[in-house]
Amino acid sequence: MNVDIGNALASVASPGISREALESIDDQVAVAHERIEAGMDAGEHGYEALNLPERTDTDEIRLAADRVTGPETSAIITVGIGGSALGAATITDALNGADDPEAIYLDNVDPEWLTSELARLDLETTVVNVVSRSGTTAETLANFLVVREAFESAGVDWTERTIVTTGESGPLRDLVDRHDLPSLEVPDGVPGRFSALSAVGMVAAAVCGHDLDALLEGAAAEAETLTGSLFECPAYAYGATAYALDARGAGINAMMPYAESLETYAEWFAQLWAESLGKDDLGQTPVRALGATDQHSQLQLYRAGPRDKLVTFVSAEEGADREIPDTDVDDLAYLGDATLGELLDAEFEATEASLAAAGRPNVRVEIERVDEFELGGLLYGMEAACVLAGELYGVNTFEQPAVEWAKKATRGLLGGGEFEEAEAVAEKTELRIER
Ligand SMILES: O=P(O)(O)OC[C@H]1O[C@H](O)[C@H](O)[C@@H](O)[C@@H]1O
Q1: Which spans in 210-339 are helix H?
Q2: For atom 13 of ligand 1, which residue has the closest CA?
Q3: Does residue 357 sit in the same domain as residue 241?
């Protein structure tokens, strides 16, 4: 990926970063890079994620996926949540074409939605991809039990169509052993939100026939750019700029890719950025946005609201295109001379310039196209940017203790044990205004 931080400079934006400040931050980047390199060399928890390009065994993933996939495979249901779903969804949503199996992600426990999703599938030709490091995540286990029941009710042998990616032990590992299911391991030392470039994120891509090696080659090429300076490393330039803008008041980061196929990538980025950096009352709030669509919903706030946002654009240099037919509507005749791709590019450049004209900081992330190599580089680049930002914030980038309170409360509310968190739910302060 390439990064252009010109519109984040103090000469353009407020908040903005002076060139002197960038030079000073670059000294911190050099120190942070040494820490990151040491963590990678030692295979330390979290830093190990940046070793995935050479660690992930794509043959192993393909072999396991091939045990449940055939030419008749029409769909793959991934049952997982958070990092155990968003990386895989980012890859298949970015790469799947009309002829690929449909990739569905059951990463919520909404009964109406899940029932409607299952009802429209041909379970005979559907693969089930269960992903959970712990094997105890309530949403994932509940959804798996419902999916398994749906297969059994349809008289379809789920064991012939189910692949599991989980830790070395736990309920899902027991299920694998009991039914001799094809399985893969969640890599040690890699938090879920950093695991897209491992079996966690790549089984669905394998079932859908994508080039896993190209994903890793793109990631490896990005890994090669990790040097000790933000002026030489796009990932570090992005991470340092986002951090520095937050320190100057831009506490919100709207991730706005100009490609429909990257909409889920913005959701993946939101977990990566929020769950890694949101600690000790610090962290930059990610907002999922999409170009050109959100020019018509959020741009007003980005351009004329509080000066508390960075807008991050992701633009693909090339892609499939389509002519806009001629029209006799006078005011729209100019569109007939353009293609949809030219319109999308013009809207991106116009929106980028409109924010700069209003002194609103924005950064451009460029990829050549949305394919395996470029996507692997984007995922890896943003992971490295996040690790660097975590070093600059001085937070524990790789843990997420704050998510545990609600889990305990949920378990307590369902009779899964005595938890004071559940009692706190009952003590809610109310001020109800009813219709
Ligand atoms: O993979 P699992 O153990 O099922 O965890 C799934 C997700 O839930 C956790 O609560 C964390 O918030 C995520 O970082 C994680 O990816």
Answers
A1: 212-223, 234-247, 263-277, 299-304
A2: 82
A3: yes
> Cα(139) to centroid of ligand 1, in Å?
10
Answer yes or no: do 257 and 174 share one domain.
no
Rounded CA-CA distance 51/33 in Å is 14
**Which are the catalytic amino acids?**
275, 296, 407
CA 86–ligand 1 middle distance (angstroms): 11
Q: Is 84 helix (H, G, I), strand (E, B) or coil?
A: helix
Residue 83, domain extent:
51-210
Same domain? 286 vs 340: yes
Task: Tell which residue, 111, 95, 113, has the closest CA to residue 103.
Answer: 95
Task: For 283-309, write each residue's pLDDT tens digit.
Answer: 999 999 999 999 999 999 999 999 999
Of 403, 405, 408, 410, best ligand 1 pocket probe by most atoms within 8 Å of the beta carbon: 403
User: Of all residues in the chain, what percent carry a pLDDT higher than 70?
Assistant: 100
How far apart are the CA of 136 and the centre of ligand 1, in A? 9
- Which residue in 233, 215, 287 sits closest to 61, CA to CA? 215
CA distances from 127 to 62, 140, 144, 159, 423 (A): 14, 16, 12, 10, 40
Residue with tokens 């892609």: 319
pLDDT digits (tens, 9 = 90+) for 148-198: 999 999 999 999 999 999 999 999 999 999 999 999 999 999 999 999 999
Can you tell me the ipTM of this complex? 0.98
Atom of ligand 1 minimally distant from the CA of 134: 3
Classify 289 in phi/psi space as left (phi over 0), alpha (psi -120 to 50) or beta.
beta
Contact 141, 109 (CB under 8 A): no
CATH (domain of 145): 3.40.50.10490
Tell me the whole-structure pTM to 2 decimals. Answer: 0.98
Task: Report which protein residue has its CA nearest ligand 1's atom 8.
Answer: 82
Residue nearest to atom 11 of ligand 1 (CA): 82
Residues lining ligand 1, Cβ inside 6 A: 81-84, 132-134, 137, 140, 191-193, 275, 400, 403
Distance of CA 171 from the midpoint of ligand 1 (Å): 15
CA gap 110, 98 in Å, rounded: 27
45, 79, 84: residue to mutate for ligand 1 pocket, most atoms within 8 A of CB:
84
Does 134 lie in the same domain as 181?
yes
Query: For residue 336, what pLDDT is reported?
Result: 86
Other C-beta atoms within 10 Å of 255: how many? 25
pLDDT digits (tens, 9 = 90+) for 222-272: 999 999 999 999 999 999 999 999 999 999 999 999 999 999 999 999 999
- Give residue 328's pLDDT: 87
Report how far residue 336's alpha carbon sits from residue 328's, in angstroms, rounded to the nearest whole number.
Answer: 9
